[in-house]
Structure formats: C-alpha cells, structure tokens
Predict the 3D structure of the following.
Amino acid sequence: MKKQIRKEYLEKRNNILNREERSSIICSLIQKHPSFQTSQIVGIYKSFMSEVDTKDIIASSYMCGKIVCFPRVEGDDLVFYKTEKDDLFEKSSYGIEEPFKKIQNRIEPDLVIVPGVVFDENGGRMGYGKGYYDRYFEKHFPNKVGICFREQLIDKVPMNSQDIFMDSIIHD
C-alpha cells in the first residue's frame, strides 16, 4: 500500500507547476512559524528533484543569523553538519547534495525542516522508504516541520510503529 501511494504521489509532485513560486510561499510561511522564529540551529535539506525548493529557506536562515546544518547519510543514520554559506557539498549515492564530513562540524539542530512524499494534517509523513529521518527522530528530539505542496496532502498517511509524526506541516 505504501509503495503504491509513494509512486502515485511522486508522479503528482513531478507534475506540479509553478514550483519556484510556490516554494517561495512555503518559505514565507516557515519564516512566520513560531518554531523557526525561536530556533537557533536549523537542520534543512538541499532540494532534490521535485521537492519543495529550500534555497530561500536556507538563505533566510543565514540572514536571520541562525546556525544552518544539513543531513548526511552515514551507514543507516543521518548526521547533521554545520555549514557556512559558501561551503561546498558533494553528491551522495542517492544523488542528494550532502555536506562534506567534518567531525568538528557535527551539530544537533533544534528545528529540522523535513522533506517527504506524502503528508497529512495530523503530522503523518511518508518519505522515500529508507527510514533515515524516522531513525534520527527516535534518538533526537528537535521540532519537526514537514514541508510540501498541497498536492502531497492526503487524509491519513498509513503509519507503522517506526514512523515518526511531524510537529507541524507547512504547505502552500
């Protein structure tokens, strides 16, 4: 069931028009969100394929003087690394841009902006199926904000015992 939902909604997301404009709207909503305003260390991903474009959120975070960090897959885990505005990234085996591994830059965000394929208004989230974010959130407890386009919302995401709910979902 999850596999079919994932396939259907990835296809829907790939066909979304005005992605850049709509991503900017989502960025504005994040900037007004209390968890963003009170956060000091923002964990965020670099957009991949047809995900909500995070470049405005990243720029805004740096402009607001926040510490910005990005996830890197290491084995079965996500590890967040602090980055500076002009730091270079490398492509992972999945084709996702990740920060270079620098042990001294490991950091725990107090807010994580989370990608996904499907969300619901109760915080349910379905990612790409590897469970990296869910495993991270089992051991770390930042504010979790899922972002998506409205076409990615469904009534109820099928969740199992390993799936972690988001604290908030922001969409256009």
Q: What stands out?
A: The first helix runs from residue 2 to 14. The beta strands are 41-43, 67-74, 77-83, 89-91, 97-99, 111-114, 118-119, 125-126, 143-148, 168-171. Helices lie at 2-14, 19-32, 34-38, 55-63, 132-139. The two ends are 26 Å apart (CA to CA).
